[in-house]
Amino acid sequence: MSQTALKVALALVTLSVKDDWEYRLPPGLVDVSERLLLASGSPGYGPRLMRMSKRPWMIRVYQIQDRMVPGQFEGFGHRKIFMQQQVEAAIKQGAGQVLVVGAGFDTLCLRLAPQHSQIQFFEVDHPATSAAKARGIALEGQPANMIQIAADLGKQALSKVLSEDARWQSSVPSVLLAEGLFQYLTDDEVRGLLSDAATCTSPGSRFVFSHAIPGERVLLSFLTRLIAEPWKSAVRSEDLPEYVEGTGWKVISDVDTDSAHGVERYAVSERR
Ligand SMILES: C[S@@+](CC[C@H](N)C(=O)[O-])C[C@H]1O[C@@H](n2cnc3c(N)ncnc32)[C@H](O)[C@@H]1O
Question: In ligand 1, which atom is closest to the CA atom of 2?
Fold first, then answer.
């Protein structure tokens, strides 16, 4: 089970009590995150932790953590806002499928699927994390147009996983999201995932992702290794066009120079 997936969702619960973040985060995100965490059955993730996570002193805990991973706390909020804006823009421009890769406890599909009954929403994640989330999805009421697929993408190609699910249609313009995922793959695996995703998506589809930027982070590296989820790849936003070249995708977003995004940057690529 991905500890980092739990941690992202929990950080958002605390972020919602900082400044005006409650109003900046997409509506419903915090409440659904909290319920998914509670239903996950993960040790320690009970009502007490949820109450504690909303106390002002918890903000201070994240601010101390930010000394190791600068900007990460508010970065989670910016990331969620960016991803949702990109999905909504892609839907307006005709995307018929939304696919969240490495979904963790992300709530986007659960929240947007009921609003867009004509769009098919997919989530793919590691079986252990997927199963823990499925308990919460069942309690929320799984939207008819939302599908959860459990797969280890280290072992199975995304295109194969999708082709085994008859509901994915390669010919439909789609928007794919990989949020906080690429840093857990090597550079070759990231490019492999992009190339593979290109084989099951139609031209004009979008792949929206966040990626780590290079930096000296000895402590972060130590901590992520400690929870067995080390960061394996990083790329400068300026270098992205070259990084994705030959994968079937072209970066269409501007270079992301926003330090509010912490140790990550965001990008949008389009299937050519
Ligand atoms: C940091 S979490 C991010 C979760 C979510 N995207 C978010 O931002 O809230 C990374 C996610 O990637 C998933 N992941 C990492 N490696 C994976 C793999 N080989 N196959 C499938 N999922 C993977 C983990 O299970 C986890 O849910």
Answer: 25
